Amino acid sequence: MKVRANPDVIARIVGERTILIDSAIGRCFGLDAVGGRMWRLLVEYESTEPALDQLVAEFDADASVIARDLKKLVDALSRHNLIAVTSKSGRRRK
Q1: Residue 87 half-sphere exposure toward CB, CA atoms < 13 A
Q2: How many structural domains comprise the chain?
């Protein structure tokens, strides 16, 4: 899936946490160290597949567990309008 960060979102690392601020609505979201790394890779690659590959290379965990956790995060970020998700065909996912 392709992902694109909402341009209104500001991300800041504070200690071990990543804080996402939706400046359009004034809401803050906090991610732990692993969630923050997932966020940074999603924003960098703009796709879940290379982000997953990188996470599997970095973390000592089963690939299926990492894939499940990444999907949960993508779903939550999308639900809160922090990212837009589209399929490979370019259709926006709901």
Answers
A1: 5
A2: 1
* 91 lies in some domain: no
CA–CA separation, 68 and 24 (whole Å): 29
The answer to whether position 92 is within a domain reads no
Q: Which residue has the tokens 């982000």?
A: 51
Q: What is the pTM of this model?
A: 0.90
Please name the residue ranges forming H helices in the chain: 33-45, 48-58, 63-79
Q: CA angle, corner 46, sides to 51 and 7, nearest 5?
A: 130
pLDDT in tens, 65-94: 999 999 999 999 999 999 999 976 555 554
Q: How far is CA 73 from the centre of its chain?
A: 6
